[in-house]
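ok here's the first one, seq then struct tokens
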Amino acid sequence: MIHLDHRDSRPIYEQIADAFRRQIDAGVLAPGEKLPSVRELSASLTINPNTIQRAYRELEKDGWTQSEPGKGSFVR
């Protein structure tokens, strides 16, 4: 579960990416495990889907996840 702190000075997308990084480091999310879809996560957190997409791009750019077109994002 991802908890956002709206008083945090970091942008929301960074908070989301950091939360996923912590979950991967802790073993909560295992390699090959699928992340929630952008739509699912944006609905559950009630934030703009573009914000989720930006967090996912950051995770992929940093090598934490891998995107498969039409399938979603997966932990590396």
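and now the second one, same deal
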Amino acid sequence: IDVSCLEIQIETGKNAATDSEPYVMLRYSNNNGYTWSDEMWESMGNIGEYSKPIRWNRLGNGRKWQFEFRFVASQKYSIVRAKIELGAGL
């Protein structure tokens, strides 16, 4: 299975301004957790960005996918939705 895009939409930006920008990290395994990708960090958006989509493209081919997220944020957030786009592959 080819994962051409993984997207999550995060609702954030509701708290008072902070000095640190919030980030989310994705790493994945396409072989049932035997090996993992490098960490890929993306901004979750600043105060006022209430619903920011975050995308990771061209993750590759595999048969047994696992995804791990890590959030670094001093403000409240929630995952509103997640979407995976599949392409041709294995």
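notes on #2: The CA atoms of residues 23 and 82 lie 16 Å apart. DSSP finds no helices and six strands in the chain.
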